[in-house]
Amino acid sequence: MILTLDALKENGAFTGRPIEKKISWKQGDKEFTATVYVRPAGYHSAKSDILSHGGKNDAIAGRIAASICDESGKPVFTPEDITGEADPERGALDGSLTVALLVAIQEVSEMGKTASSPEKKKSGAN
Prior knowledge:
The chain has 5 helices and 3 strands. It is of the alpha+beta class and 126 residues long. The longest helix is centred in the C-terminal third of the chain and has 16 residues.
């Protein structure tokens, strides 16, 4: 394949539109449900991963900020919104919500991938 935009489009090399996901989490006695949009892993998540290796941002906060977006793909958070650095009075994102967002990101990352078959075992003694 010659590397061109058309060839890359034909071979699915672009992440496309965000995927809509429903998430739920608890804060104390209250349970919340929300619709979020998750950008499939691509340029934004790769950039975040590289920045975290260079110590420029937190890896988990960066992954959430790179992945969670609005319907048009615009980021909802910055890494600092998630860690609480953007507004220390507000603080960091709730832990249960953080986990729910990470699960949604993982589900979108796994879409279209097939699970490997379990290794077959021989019956009987050797």
